[in-house]
Structures are given as C-alpha cells and as structure tokens.
Amino acid sequence: MMKNMIPDRERKQKLEARLTGCEFGSKVLAFVTVDSTNLVLKRELERLPHGTLAIAEEQTFGRGRRGRSWQSPAGTGVWMSLLIKNLPKTDKAPMITIVAALAVARALREISDADCLIKWPNDIVLGGRKICGILTEMCTTENGQMGIIVGIGINISQCEFPAELAQTATSLKIETGCEFDRLEIVGRIMCHFEDLYRQFLQGGDLQNLQEEYNQLLVNAGKEIQIISEHDPFRGIGIGIDAQGRLLVESGGTVKAVLSGEVSVRGIYGYC
Ligand code: BTN
Predict the structure, then answer these.
(1) Mean of the pLDDT values across residues 64-71?
(2) Number of domains in the chain
(3) Which of 13, 32, 69, 256 has its CA 20 to 30 A from that of 214?
C-alpha cells in the first residue's frame, strides 16, 4: 500500500453493511486519506472486481475534468469512485456519466428535498452553483482488460469556499442549512446507480432514462453557449437524446452536441 493511503476500517464495515447484496459496492475500499479515489482504482484495475467502490474522507490530489484539480478537504464531502467492468461496448462509456448524474440527482433530491438539477452532461447544481462533479475515465490494463472509473465528488458540509471557487461552488449545508449523513448519501446513490445502470444495459442506450434526466436538466429552455474550438455557437437547450447528446436549437435548426464545455445563462456566473 502507498504511504499516503490510510485505510478506514470503521467506514469500510459500515458501508459494507449498508451495501450487502448490492452489485455496486460489492467490494469497498475505504480510506482516511488518499491521493485520489480514481487513481486507487486505476492502479489496481487488473485485480479489482466489477462494482468495487473506493471512498475517502480526504483526497490530497483530487482530480477534476479537463485537467483541473478537485478540492476534497477531510470530512466535508463524498469523495468516491466506482469501478464498472461489464460494459459490453466501449463506445457507450460516455453514457455512463449521464446515468451517474441522474443517480446523484435522485439521491440528493430525496435526502435533502432541495431542488438539485443537472447541468449537462454531469454537474449537479443547486441554487445556481455546482454541488457535485463527476469524472469518468476509461482505462485499459497492459493485458487488455477494460474498466470504467466513475469518480463522484459532492460538497456536503463546507460552510465556505476559497475565493476562486466562491462564485461557482456550493455545498448542501450552505444551500439547506442542514447536516447530512454522508454514508446514507453514498448508500442511496449506489442503489439508484445500480437500478439506473440496469435499465441502461437493458435498453442499450439512454431511452429509458431520458425523460427523467430531461426533467431535471438546467440547460432546458435556457440560452446556452457551446465552447468548442471548432464550432462554438449559442442556442437554446432542448434536452438529451437517447445517446446522451445535448440537443440545442440554434438559428432554426437543432444541433446535437456530443462533447464540449457548455455555459448556461444564469449558472456559474454566466450572464
Ligand atoms: C469535475 O471536474 O467536475 C469532476 C470532479 C470529480 C471529483 C471526484 S472526487 C472523487 C473522484 N476522485 C478524484 O480525484 N476525482 C473524482
């Protein structure tokens, strides 16, 4: 075990008890402190089974999308990653991120009663600020084994954020004034994720989840800006299609956006 990985036996036991019989969380790796839960799974990809959940109280090298860092102070959030090894086709990997976002939104809405919404493809926003980010990585080992690592970071009990994040980030505590049991949140997310992932595998795409996802989509009906090197444009967000692409009405036509950064007017300071 690496020097900066301190196991957390108590939380491991509690989570295992909560997730008994589940496919997601069938094996739990819990740490007091770790560099990044995504990196833990990546390093052990070969030997770890499908459904392994890695979770930490603190990450010293939390990673975000587009090479950004992810602040993960001790005891303030949910910092966890799930290993998926049974995806039949690798080209469907980006859709898992949509499934994960819906699972997190469902769980947070259920536990807090707060109006948590999804910003395409997989940020969760509350009160116009980001409360959760998801980093999905596809990895292959030297002998060709493939795994999808879904890293989920949720801000739960922070009372404030450093100046550079104060305009864009928030926590469940700041928005609701309440304290939440983080392991209960993890349990609920795993439950919903497993259920939604099954529906996704059955349908072969996102057709079974599209309607619920679109109801929670903060981009829908809003003016949005697609930030892309090759084809930047503005339009009105409609919703996702069964492939998880964002449909945007622009200049009388509907364009399907596969990837790229999307700004929504009124969210994260875009006005
Ligand atoms: C984003 O930039 O929005 C994605 C942030 C993802 C953060 C989570 S925290 C658990 C997992 N481990 C990491 O290093 N990153 C993800």
Answers:
(1) 94
(2) 2
(3) 69
